[in-house]
């Protein structure tokens, strides 16, 4: 942990990091000076091991309860899910078992055993290739600190910045950020963290301007000095000149006015100036986040990623749990539709519950999604039965992920029919007319969209995977990120083809990949004939705003020009030129929290 040793002082300085949460914050620095927890390293007697284990388990329980209290004080959202994941880590049998071994066999005191076991996990995560896992190291550090403090009988360090302060820290835990939420801070700057770090996620969901991953920030500023946090550009100005404070104040006013304008209109429907209605729905992953879509004005849920119900737990979700969860989401969104995607596990979303441990050299093309569900038929049927029963309570739609051929789709349809037969035989009530849809995530599915359309009630294009498979570019690999091109002519042609196949068959086509959340692509997607977009909830207001300020004629005209380009860069340039002129604020601010990053602006 950073000692928070401050040098600071001197004159004006600027530092750069990752623009984690949009907005401009101007305030007095509040440097979080965390002392390192002093871990006693004492050997215990053999007779005391059971007492020591008891002390350890009690500290784990106390820490879980502390987190529960913090969780209850927070609104629903991603931050709650993070705290829940931390509570689960505190129940992790491997961690508990390892600490008990260190106490029982090596006779270490509980504090020392916790520090050793968590250091081992930290080291393991350090070596992970995946950025997401590396970011999870901070969870372990925070949890270890809390458990050790609980063992020592100390209260965890609370951060209490004055209102309007800019918090400068090495890193922030979700519990820290919970305090910040109530302190109304002007901004956050952390030395650690990247785009998916908790500080970044939480700052975005709490709408606090933030820059993370700013090297050396703790040594560069004193508490009490003035700081400007530019969460749009990823810039931090320390001890700014008077004139630059004025400039940033004006920019902050503009930004806030834009945010308020967009947010004020979030409940209005997305209808173009010439009367074309576009549905803007939300993507949801956890039923804890249920409030989010509604609060941002979404027209229902276009993608419920049900696979998260199979993660971070020790038992499979039962038919009853699927039924209750789906019913709860439907009630919340009534009368809007909710699209439940059947579990899309495997590859980047593993679950130990399905009992697949075989190493796959190429997991993105391996046993995943519908292929896996068909292989684990009983687990799949339990989910389908739960969903078919819940469909009695509202407009539920079932969607099958990663289909590559008509046979695969037919197998999926047969499973739905089997689930219906089982319910019928058991005398259970279910919806016989629940619409069934298919995701278009592979080039093969896009190319046979006309054949698939003849067998389903709706289609939804998953561009996150469709781009990956079309371009042969791993969606999670930074090294080939530059080749991940949503406006590549191949992508435009595939999306157009699916939209046309849907129109001919009179089957609605939506798009639920990250492209839908990006203001740069709204005109092109609508121009290609996609009238249902599903996205991260926080992106809904800005996308609606763009649609409400545009005519379908101008969208169609730009799309026609883009379809004539030969490369993704040519297409990008054209789109940016027009969108920058028509919606300068939207592109600059990206609606505050949408996925847009205007690299070349
Ligand atoms: C997609 O692939 O575009 C999609 C929406 O599914 P996921 O991101 O969950 O793979
Ligand atoms: Mg996908």
Q: What is this entry, summarized?
A:
The chain has 601 residues and is an alpha/beta fold. Helices cover 46% and strands 12% of the residues. It has three domains: 122 residues, Glucose Oxidase, domain 1; 106 residues, Orthogonal Bundle (Enzyme I, Chain A, domain 2); 323 residues, Alpha-Beta Barrel (TIM Barrel), CATH 3.20.20.60.
Strand and helix map with partners:
Blueprint: E1 13-16, E2 18-21, E3 24-31, H1 49-73, H2 78-89, H3 93-104, H4 110-126, H5 131-135, H6 137-152, E4 166-169, H7 174-183, E5 187-190, H8 198-206, E6 210-212, E7 226-230, E8 235-238, H9 242-264, E9 279-284, H10 290-295, E10 301-305, H11 319-333, E11 338-341, H12 369-375, H13 377-390, E12 396-400, H14 406-425, E13 436-440, H15 443-447, H16 449-453, E14 458-461, H17 463-471, H18 489-505, E15 509-511, H19 522-527, E16 532-535, H20 540-548, H21 552-563, H22 568-582, H23 584-589
The structure holds phosphoenolpyruvate and magnesium ion (MG).
Describe the structure.
It contains 23 helices and 16 strands. The two termini are 36 Å apart. It is of the alpha/beta class and 601 residues long. An eight-stranded mixed beta sheet has the order 1-8-7-3-4-5-6-2. An eight-stranded parallel barrel has the order 9-10-11-12-13-14-15-16, surrounded by five helices. The longest helix is centred in the first third of the chain and has 25 residues, at 49-73. α11 runs parallel beside α13 (377-390). Mean pLDDT is 88; it is low at 1-7 and 590-601. The protein folds into three domains: 13-34 and 159-258, Phosphohistidine domain (Glucose Oxidase, domain 1, 3-Layer(bba) Sandwich), CATH 3.50.30; 47-152, PtsI, HPr-binding domain (Enzyme I, Chain A, domain 2, Orthogonal Bundle), CATH 1.10.274.10; 265-587, Alpha-Beta Barrel (TIM Barrel). Bound molecules: phosphoenolpyruvate and magnesium ion. Magnesium ion is lined by residues 441, 462, 464-465.
